[in-house]
Amino acid sequence: MKRFYNLADLTAPEVEQLLDDAARIKKDPLTDDLRGRQVGLLFLAPSLRTRTSFEVGVRELGGGVSTLEGAMFYALETRSGARMDGDAAEHVREAVPVLSRYFSAVGLRVMAGGRTREEDLEDHRFLSFAEHATVPIFNMESALYHPCQALADMLTVREILGSHRNRRITLTWAPHPKPLPTAVPNSLLLAAAQMGMDVTVAHPEGYDLPGTVMARAEALASMAGGSVRRTSDRAAAAAGAEIVYAKSWGALSRYDAPDAEQASRERHRDWTIDEAFMARTDDARFMHCLPVRRNVVVSDAVIDGPRSVVVDQAENRLHAQKAMLRWLLG
Ligand code: CP
What we know:
Layout (H helix, E strand, L loop, with lengths): L2 E2 L7 H16 L10 E6 L5 H12 L3 E6 L6 E2 L12 E2 H11 L2 E6 L6 H5 L2 H7 L6 E6 L4 H15 L6 E6 L9 H12 L3 E5 L8 H14 L2 E5 L2 H5 L4 E5 L10 H9 L8 H5 L5 E3 L12 H4 L6 H20 L1
Parallel strand pairs: 1-7, 2-3, 2-6, 4-5, 6-7, 8-9, 8-11, 9-10, 11-12
This protein binds phosphoric acid mono(formamide)ester.
The site of phosphoric acid mono(formamide)ester has 9 residues, from helix 2.
């Protein structure tokens, strides 16, 4: 039984095939690949793009779709052996097998629980749901990965640059009022490395991405003929970039110290992507997964300017996810 959890679980040729299929679907969007199939979308966190693009995508593939939001069903327990005398009225050990009897595939958005760093670094919530599924499961964003976003991002990069190998992408941390999960930067980094891009990861000291993700990205880049480097020097991060991908994330080193984390983020407000930063690049395009905080993450002038491709990225979610569903249920 297939599962779409982390794009890096697929081989590079498999990812290339998904991108080719997504490009074909973009030109010819209506098929009946999912005729007679029902897909469930389970959201325990908000969404605009993921929810809508999956609903439209499943219908355009001829299938049926049901969206379940956390507020609509019982609070779910994920811990084995838990005494359930708190808020959670149902355990994933029953809920997920039941959903598996109704749907041909189930998508989950189960982001970081914020209980402990270790639990989120193990992607405990997503994996505890997924282990009880008896139909294919796909990840609509977990604590660690957002593979649908990364697949759409690689499609967007290929459309812009015509190729991935040794093309230069800078993934840069940006300010934000809240500490966000690392799922998007983790998946973007892994995907760009797997496609053989030369990736610069730029962030202030203390904002390292998870060590396991960096190590995996370096190994993938080495296999694909690309590279990964890390810097906290913004001028070096901008120099030569063909793509600037901005995203904020919280400091894993201060996971259990929110006040210190907040104070640290305040000190790096000057990491906003503005025209001065973009002017130092190699005429780079600007990417962000959305939603985005204007004039915090990126200036109006950049996101409204001719180098911004954020809406193209969001459109490509639809095409990329349809290709993924065809692969998952084909
Ligand atoms: N980029 C993304 O996943 O958007 P949503 O949170 O709106 O789904």
